[in-house]
Amino acid sequence: MLKMDEDALVCDLAETYHIYDYKQLPPLKVAVFSLGLREESRINRVISGNRVSFERRILAGMFDRLGMLIWMKTTDGQKGKNRPEMVSTMFDNQHKDSEVVSFGSGKDFEETRNNILGFGGDS
Question: Has residue 35 been placed in a domain?
């Protein structure tokens, strides 16, 4: 834990146990205190790779779903325009670039699909 983010661990120990200088304690006692930190502690978020707490992810998801429901009731929503951005995607470690592709006919779709899958096409 110390190698990953010493500052996060020091801050968590100070907040939870009021330990401001962990180096004065025996290493085993510091290890026990470190393992007793709550799941949403800074150091546990660093270890798991999550930037935000589970609670905030749930709240963001609720916000997104509510926004989507409201948007669907508008004229833009019924036409599929001006879709609201999802707050929860800001928490993802990997940003996904989604490209929307539309086709004029089923034939265009089949040709593009076959080219992507490597089934030939214009050769």
Answer: yes
